[in-house]
Specification:
There is one protein chain. This protein has one domain. Helix content is 81%, strand content 0%. The protein contains four helices and no strands.
Length: 110
Amino acid sequence: MDLLGWIVIITGVAFLFLGCLGIIRLPDVYNRVQAGTKCTTMGACFTIIGVGIMQPGWFWKTLIIAVFILISNPVSSHALGRAAYKSGIPLWGKSKTNQAAEFEQKQKKR
């Protein structure tokens, strides 16, 4: 079980590393929020479940924590992205679409 636990933990650490790399490399706040959310959600869940695999007495507790992260992390990042948009932080200059602006225009026409 220890080997499987270590494999799951290392997979989680790889996701966390890629998320950090994405936050550093991506051009604007919206792309950074997306990279940070996806990678940290998967990375944290894999890491925590790996600990649960290595410590079978903790498995159900770690599973509950992972489910909480799966639910709360995307919701919080959505709130951050929406707050950034409402604050007027511009998109990256080479962005091709602005779906939030298109949605707002459709709402005004109604």
